[in-house]
Amino acid sequence: MTPTPTAASASPVLDLDRLTRRYGSLTAVDDVSLRLPAGARHAVIGPNGAGKTTLLNLIAGTDRPDQGTIVLDGADITRTATAKRSRLGIARSFQQPSVISELTVLENVVLAGWPHHPKRRGAWRSPSRYRLHTESAGRHLEAVGLADIAHRPASTLSHGQRRMLDLAAALTGEPRLLLLDEPAAGLTDGDIGRLLGVLGGLPESVAIVLVEHHVEVVAQLAATVTVLAAGRVLVTGPTQEVLAHPEVRDAYHNTGTTADKATADVPAPDTENVGASTADPSVAPSADPTADARG
């Protein structure tokens, strides 16, 4: 399959042009270009060390490219600070859920949404303004099924519930672009079904870039896929075509995963009882993203 642009004819919410990131002699992201329209459901997959997490870091602003440009809604944000990118509409979840254990579930989401709220200044001293923050946070907890445990300490949550809390925190800024780094890592089949239910219910205006090793999750959620190998784009195209492509099977030759297997094994999205999450303690979360420069 010849690499093709993604929805090139549509006005892109995200336009990456020839992004390159080097760490000494290692080129973690090598000349990567990608265009995504508003509301895209796009996955980035590839073997360990392919550059997937580094690519998300470049988009989010936690790392800077050596070459290339990043354009969001027509504005060049290549050198824009991470905090400003967040205010412009980029939100992110991480391989390890970014949760403050000492705070309650609700307080975690309130804190995450604070920089985005129009009445954030002085809200700690204003009961009415603080109430606006908590009401907004409560709506996002309701969306991910955690409203019933909003006042529990985050330290008491299962791994699956922490994943959902991390997602609620990312959504509280009403993002235009949501970056998800292995959101299904360490989840049980039931938790994966609930995750798919939440992500499938997001507004069409929210574009998603998903990095995920669970190919069955990619098959269920993503309309298009980019495969990275050694930092370079191997192929981009419709999900089923890409997952079944010989070059992609070669890249995953140790897994034996194909599109047919992915769609056969995918758990159904759980649109009911989203919050009743129980993670399998024998399944460890994914490794520290800093362990491999490419990700």
Fraction of helical residues: 25-40%
Global mean pLDDT:
82
* Discrete helix count: 10
The N- to C-terminal Cα distance equals: 24 Å
Keywords summarizing the entry:
32% helix, alpha/beta, four-stranded antiparallel sheet, 295 residues, 10 strands, 10 helices, disordered N terminus, 21% strand, six-stranded mixed sheet
Account of the 3D structure:
The chain has 295 residues and is α/β, with parallel strands linked by helices. It is built from 10 helices and 10 strands. It has helices at residues 52-60, 82-88, 105-113, 127-144, 159-171, 189-200, 215-221, 239-243, 246-251, 259-265, and strands at 12-23, 26-37, 41-45, 67-72, 75-76, 90-92, 177-181, 207-211, 224-229, 232-238. The strands form 2 sheets. It has a 6-stranded mixed β-sheet, sandwiched between helices. A hairpin with a 2-residue loop joins β1 and β2. The radius of gyration is 19 Å and the shape is globular. It starts with 11 loop residues before the first strand and ends in a 30-residue tail after the last helix. Residues 2-9 and 254-292 have low confidence and may be disordered.
Helix and strand topology:
Layout: E1 12-23, E2 26-37, E3 41-45, H1 52-60, E4 67-72, E5 75-76, H2 82-88, E6 90-92, H3 105-113, H4 127-144, H5 159-171, E7 177-181, H6 189-200, E8 207-211, H7 215-221, E9 224-229, E10 232-238, H8 239-243, H9 246-251, H10 259-265
Short structural summary:
By secondary structure, the protein is an alpha/beta fold. Helix content is 32%, strand content 21%.
